[in-house]
Amino acid sequence: MANARKAATTSRTATKRASRPQAKPRVLVMVATRKGAWLYHGDAARRSWRTSGPHFLGHIINHMRLDPRDGRTLLAAAKTGHIGPTVFRSTDLGRTWKEAAKPPAFAKSPEGMRSRSVDHTFWLTPAHANEPNVWYAGTSPQGLFRSEDGGVTWAPFSTIHDDPKYRGWFGTEQDGTSDGPKLHSILVDPRDPAHLYFAMSGGGIHESVDKGRTWTPLVTGMEVVEGFDAANIAFHDPHCIRMCPSNPDRLYQQNHCGIYRLDRPSREWVRVGKAMPKKVGDIGLPMVVHPRDDNVAWVFPMDGGGVWPRTSPDGIPGAFVTRNGGKTWKRQAAGMPDGKAWWTVKRQAMAADGGDPVGLYVGTTSGELWASRNEGEKWSVLAQHLPEIYAVEAAEIG
Amino acid sequence: MKVLIPTPLRSYTRQREVDAAGLTMAELLADLDRRYPGIRFRMIDEQDRMRRHVRFFVNGEQVFDLTRPLKPSDDIAIVQALSGG
Fold first, then answer.
1. How far A35 CA sits from the closest chain B CA (Å)?
2. Which of A6, A316, A354, B26 has the fewest CB atoms nearer than 10 Å to its CB?
3. What ipTM describes this predicted complex?
4. pTM, whole model, 2 decimals?
């Protein structure tokens, strides 16, 4: 009976759609924080917003993603301060959640090699459009996992976990970011599901063309901290890598040591951040690309001097955009405080939607969510007084 | 035997105290996981190590070894360490 009712509703909806121009999609902004997650449902104009949350209040949510292949499945990477990590899954856009039956967990290592345990899942990436229900996850300490059932069960993916060479590049738990070294920026080539990238903080950037069976470092041209040897993969600290949806051969990267661009098949990164204003520099955490124009990308610079405050340079926050592939950069801070604002924006906490013009979203560790409806030209606050924001994702729905 | 469940794990059990059986702590935790799927991994990692902020007590005495034998009359308490913020 319920199915018959649903079919009738669907049919009426389809008729309505056919008789009207296609509605512009709505926007879903997913905000993951140190104390839970919030969802912001925006109308097509991104002027009216409805809030849902907190979800998982008290849980540390490192990342939340929507499955673009079905437009309704959400995955959230969770743990608390006391108990172990898990993944939650919703198939109704966050109305209800169910825990993964088998969250990412390392296998036992071979004799003589220290076995590792997942502290938290840090990064979630839906796989290729032709691989429905397949997801990838990156963890801390560095691990790569794959689910083939929409995030219900996860298994270690590829051979890097127990490869002695990769073990060396992972470093120790004292290396990498303050809450543990991370595997992140898992990228899937939309033209070929076997062509993958991932990055590690620390541990460089790696590419596979055989669906993760083998991996090759891709760090040529990238700088490392002064006094260290750039030939040692362990010293490379990419913060965030993005692939241009309009041109998967173009990658942008915000690194510990600058902003870079790579145009494949070249294997040499070019430091396009040298064109940033000297006073601001090109150090930061997030990197965002335009959904339709591979010459357009955004960064949110931070202070990487002295003891690395990681706050907005001189307490003046602002995004910077390039519209020519990194040749020049322009400050975009209208609406943001013009001083005395010591923001930190984490690597996953800046996102673009697919709108035209593109909507941008920035989350701060002081719990503010900022939005722009016009590609960064003007900003306004979407939410305040949230916990420390770890990640922001934006997606178009229905 | 009776097992006291800390609040972070009550989303699994929906109760403060539950019944579980086993001749050792490891067997008890396996039984808890059968009854409440997923609960063990939140306390014990994939290398069978106790997680850093979870503590186990048998009759008031802290247990560090999962092979610790148990008797049906034992009282088990699972406690979250006081930490975090």
1. 10
2. A6
3. 0.89
4. 0.92
For residue A73, pLDDT beyond 90: yes
- State the pLDDT at residue A82: 84
Task: State both tokens at B78.
Answer: 């699972």
User: Rounded mean pLDDT of A270-279?
Assistant: 97
Residues in chain B closer than 8 A to A106 (CB atoms): 46-47
Contact A82 B85 (CB under 8 A): no
CB contact under 8 A, A83 and B84: no
CA distances for B56 relative to A6, A190, A249, B60, angstroms: 50, 48, 53, 9
Residue A104 near residue A157, CB atoms below 8 Å: no
Q: Phi and psi dihedrals of B25, rounded to 5?
A: -60, -40
Domain boundaries, chain B: 2-80
Evaluate whether the domain defined by B2-80 bears CATH number 3.90.550.10. Answer: no
The CATH number of the structural domain formed by A25-272+321-333+345-350+386-397 is: 2.130.10.10
Structure tokens at A285: 């955490």
Residues A168-193 have pLDDT tens digits of 999 876 666 778 999 999 999 999 99
A83–B53 C-beta distance less than 8 A: yes
Tell the residue number behind the tokens 């912001």, with chain if given: A40
Residue A37's pLDDT is what?
98
The beta-carbon contacts of A207-216 under 8 Å, at least 24 apart in sequence, are A208/A158, A212/A144, A212/A146, A212/A157, A212/A158, A213/A158, A213/A159, A214/A159, A215/A158, A215/A160, A215/A166
Beta bridge partners of A301: A284
Among the partner residues A82, A106, A116, nearest to B53 by beta-carbon distance: A82
Report the relative pairing of strands A258-263 and A247-255 from DSSP bridges: antiparallel
Could you tell me whether strands B61-63 and B54-58 are parallel, antiparallel, or unpaired per DSSP bridges?
antiparallel
